[in-house]
Amino acid sequence: MKLTSNLTQQYKENFKEILLPLGFIIKGSLFIRVTNNEIIQTINIFKKSPFDFTLNIGIFPFSRDNDKSLLKEGSFRLYDFGDYDSGEFRYNPLSIKSIQEELEKCKYQFKKEILPIFESVQTEEDFLKFEIDSDLQNYGEIRYMSDEKLHLFLKFKNYEGALKVVEAYINQNISAIIDNHRSEFDSEDKFQIFLNSELKELNELKKAIESNDTNFLNHIVLTKIENTKTILNGYGYKF
Fold first, then answer.
1. Euclidean distance between CA atoms 94 and 7, whole angstroms
2. What is the mean pLDDT of each run of 10 residues along the chain (239 residues)?
3. I need a labelling partner for 61 at 20 to 30 A (CA). Which of 20, 120, 125, 145 fits?
4. Using CA atoms in the order 37, 156, 153, 232, what is the torsion angle rounded to 10 degrees?
5. Could you say which DSSP state residue 21 is in?
6. Which of 146, 165, 149 is nearest to 209 (CA)?
7. How would you label 114-133 residue by residue, b for 16+ Cβ within 10 Å and e otherwise?
8. pTM surpassing 0.90?
9. SS3 for 85-136, per residue?
């Protein structure tokens, strides 16, 4: 317990110097900042073993499904940016010098790879652009199966994009349900009833998008935003 505490305490002291002047607050080992009442940015230490650590990095739009555990887990790891080896740090838990040396490397990598992203992604519009640009760079196409994209498309009333997200989820779920449950039914009619019940929520959302039911769709977005604000109240943020 003492060894874990050494790493965690040194991490907090080192990153306070960088992050507190930038408007982050610290709760436990989690650093958190809210920008423009639209984006949550988080940093948390992640110990892969008693000898290895990296950072959990989070960038979360207000308009998505958020919860406290997600803020701690982040949406990326430091080694997702740059090369893997430069984002993972192996240390001797018996040596304060070793911990400090690896934390210096960690700070350097964080400043190089993550701080520029934090500074450029400060609104939900920034985030959507970041997501799409990352998809195009990494996969050569936009990947539509994304909770963030769905709710941001809804917020910005890009219903064509939102429909593509919902249809991608429907297709994925149909394949999974067929693979996992088709053999449980002795007739196609019974299976179709089950399939439709499993897809009910997604089909309702698809219907709302196709019929341009803005009241229903706006309510979804506003509910997500209010839920996020409630979570952030627990960190001392007031709206």
1. 10
2. 72 97 97 98 93 96 95 95 82 92 96 97 98 96 96 98 98 97 96 97 98 97 98 96
3. 20
4. 10
5. G
6. 165
7. beebbeebbebbbbbeebee
8. yes
9. HHHCEECCCCCHHHHHHHHHHHHHHHHHHCHHHHHHCCCHHHHHHHHHHHHH
